Amino acid sequence: MKKILYLSLIISLVSCCKKTTEETPLPPSIIDSNNINVSILIDLSDRIDPKTNPNASMEYYQRDTEYIKSIEKGFLNHIKTKRIITYNDQMQVFFNPEPSDPKINGFTKELKVSFDQNTNKAYFNTVEKKYTELPPNIYQSAIKDGNYVGSDIWEFFRNKIKDYCIKDDHRNILFILTDGYMYHKDTMFSQDKKTSYLTSKLIKSNNLNTSDFKKTFEKNNFGFVKANDNLSNLEVIVLGINPEEGNPFEEAVIKEYWENWLKEMKIKKYQIKSADLPSNLEPIIIKAITGKN
Known about the structure:
By secondary structure, the protein is an alpha/beta fold. Helices cover 46% and strands 15% of the residues.
């Protein structure tokens, strides 16, 4: 009888311990540390103007809105692979400088979204709706306004990127939608032969319009002035490189500027993609976020 009672007590204790273990969730940091912080920096310069830079197959501002939609899709796909208890993910949109139209700034606030343990399933549809409807409104407002002041990407990397785009204990991913040129009247300077800007005119004046442009580039130490010292916890995907016509090597030159610049700032993971059709870039965008095809 004593043996039976003893055995029952052991079974009861094991069962109790098992139940406690099953019902007590582990801290999120132990379960899943794969939290992502996705940022989108949009270049609202005249590159998006359908009159200045028309494209018969698909206007560049329309390509941008589809790229943004693919980024949102990859973001939500990633979150859906996680347990609710591990939700700690954000996505947001930036411009630099901020547009003068207060409407656009209002849209930007709406596009700042985050998921945590209290997020319900309906929020997925809300995010999807926002990222379908609001980006086209942003571009239409900017085109209608017609005041293209350029995009100060260099200053963003210098003064804002760490505060805006980098969070501890997250994979920080920054998508930059730009044609690859950098220009803003308030941030134009040079240090030796490096510059804070890049225009087609500068490429031409630096004699980077021949097949051996790379030799000229390296010999003269051309490139962007380094804007930050250590961005090793940031991944960057540049989308939309679109060189002006006239120099068959211009696209390669633009990519050389960007690649050297990102490396100098210790960014280990980066991609620089041309202004391809969104259907071709969507798999690349989604894989950059989720790591899956």
